[in-house]
Amino acid sequence: MMQDARWLAAAAALAGRARPSSRPNPGVGAILVKDGLVVARGWTQAGGRPHAEAVTLAAAGAAARGATLYVTLEPCAHKSERGPACADLVCASGVARVVIGCMDPDPRTSGAGLLRIRSAGIEACYTPSPACERSLSGYLISKRLGRPEVSLKLALSLDGCIALDSGESQWITGPQARAHTHAMRAKADAILVGGGTLRADNPRLDVRLPGIEHRSPARWVLTRGEVPEGWHALASPEAISEMSGIQYLFVEGGAAAATAFLRAGLVDRLLIYRAPILIGGRPALADFGLSRLSEAHGRWRMTERRQLGSDTLEVYETANASEPSLER
């Protein structure tokens, strides 16, 4: 079981290469292992096809026979004009064993993929994997809750401010933290700021890292008014359920937008970049509805901490998230 968990975590790491280009399909990772060695690997390709299993099995060819296939998400069982069902490909591949890290909530597959593989005489098991769940978080939330996963990014001073009283905010954090933010943008389907931020800063919200500039997410603004060309309007945080094809939404602020999403209870993940400075300026958040201090406790758990130059990144998820805490 420990070996299974390790290989599933490796498949989950591969799945990150599929995001966000695999949309509207989930970014899935797969690894084929025989005698402790990797035979082949793959991830969902741009546009959602071919799937990770299809890529991996095609790369392995006859070498798949007798191997174990580790896949982050249950192989699909439904027919599609875009390609064969992965469960059927697995059944025909000659693999001896299949280990799945996450069951598919899509009713067209849910449980049916695993059953079809077992019916073909192949040993198949579901081994719950926090790493696989994390790699599929946007997809799982979209299927279960009908909305994207929301990550809220805040760049703060030590005293919790996002700008001077004058409004100046460039730059609170250093170049390493800003580069990391661009990497997070590249993993999102859409990025959102508030109307005040758009009017005051006219932000580009693109990805400015060499080689992945083309992965800039779609730009959205929280407003009921008109938006510039190339932008999309979101009337309220609750309207994210209407963002078709968006699994991962990255909210960058400012304070009004951040407060609105927290008040609506629609933040799944916090990325707090903290700079070692004191500025006594504009606070990051306003009142978002807590009536007692006791209500603030137990809502968030840290899942990651890392140093980025002189700045610190802390990542928090809602308290029901399953991934174990870690530090880097």
TrEMBL record:
Taxonomic superkingdom: Bacteria
Catalytic activity: 5-amino-6-(5-phospho-D-ribitylamino)uracil + NADP(+) = 5-amino-6-(5-phospho-D-ribosylamino)uracil + NADPH + H(+); 2,5-diamino-6-hydroxy-4-(5-phosphoribosylamino)-pyrimidine + H2O + H(+) = 5-amino-6-(5-phospho-D-ribosylamino)uracil + NH4(+)
Binding site for substrate: 185, 205, 208, 252
Requisite cofactors: Zn(2+)
Residues annotated for NADP(+) binding in this entry: 155, 169, 171, 197, 201, 254-260
A GO molecular-function descriptor: diaminohydroxyphosphoribosylaminopyrimidine deaminase activity
Active site, per annotation: 53 (proton donor)
Pathway involvement of the protein, from the record: Cofactor biosynthesis; riboflavin biosynthesis; 5-amino-6-(D-ribitylamino)uracil from GTP: step 2/4; Cofactor biosynthesis; riboflavin biosynthesis; 5-amino-6-(D-ribitylamino)uracil from GTP: step 3/4
Domain CMP/dCMP-type deaminase, first and last residues per copy: 2-116
Record flagged with keyword NADP: yes
Cofactor: record remark: Binds 1 zinc ion.
Protein family: In the C-terminal section; belongs to the HTP reductase family. In the N-terminal section; belongs to the cytidine and deoxycytidylate deaminase family.
Record protein name field: Riboflavin biosynthesis protein RibD
Organism: Novosphingobium lindaniclasticum LE124
